[in-house]
Amino acid sequence: xxxxxxxxxxxxxxxxxxxxxxxxxISGHVSLFWYQQALGQGPEFLTYFQNEAQLDKxxxxxxxxxxxxxxxxxxxxxxxxxxxxxxxxYLCASSKDSRVGGNQPQHFGDGTRLSIL
Amino acid sequence: RKEVEQDPxxxxxxxxxxxAFNCTYSNSASxxxxxxxxxxxxxxxxxxxxxxxxxxxxRFTAQLNRASQYISLLIRDSKxxxxxxxLCVVNPDNYGQNFVFGPGTRLSVLP
Lengths: 117, 111
Fold this sequence. Notes:
The structure holds 2 protein chains of 2 kinds.
Chain A: E1 5-7, E2 10-13, E3 19-24, E4 31-37, E5 44-50, E6 53-56, E7 65-68, E8 75-79, E9 88-95, E10 107-108, E11 112-116
Parallel strand pairs in A: 2-11
Antiparallel strand pairs in A: 1-3, 3-8, 4-5, 4-9, 5-6, 7-8, 9-10, 9-11
Chain B: E1 4-6, E2 11-14, E3 19-25, E4 32-38, E5 44-50, E6 55-57, E7 60-65, E8 70-75, E9 84-91, E10 100-101, E11 105-110
Parallel strand pairs in B: 2-11
Antiparallel strand pairs in B: 1-3, 3-8, 4-5, 4-9, 6-7, 7-8, 9-10, 9-11
């Protein structure tokens, strides 16, 4: 498809389980971003990739959160030993190349709705 | 103080009304600005970029006041389909990284 694709759309896990969320960006987009959105709030930045390089992970809430993009295309966000406070919508976005500068908009996927029981 | 602040609303307006949303940001070095629209349980979608000179796209007008660190969005002749949450987005630098989102303003356009 032409847009950012995320899977699964919904994920329910028990507290303590590990989960993996996948993002397939728009073809040719160099920059990839992960955000976390709690109910009634705007998305909050987690991490950013330029091709396969993770250039900013300052938004990851703890060392249980890990993201990778090994071939500079598909990215996976992994959460280990999930906690109830991890319940949120996880959004992935991509843009053409954030290094170019100017107003580069980000295009978002549908998100993964994660519920930790 | 949060980096980006918006009136959460909700704004309930009749069809055809004109409605304005405000947004303030704290980082004076911020370089680029956007308005996104998010429907319930959907992803944010770009509505428009905000330029220093202001810009208009059909019924939507965006304004930027750098001195006051203030962004606005005006919707004229509102339609039922405009009902959504409007997110103000600020990019602290000019390189598309680390968008900072406001909490969003909910708009309900009523028949």
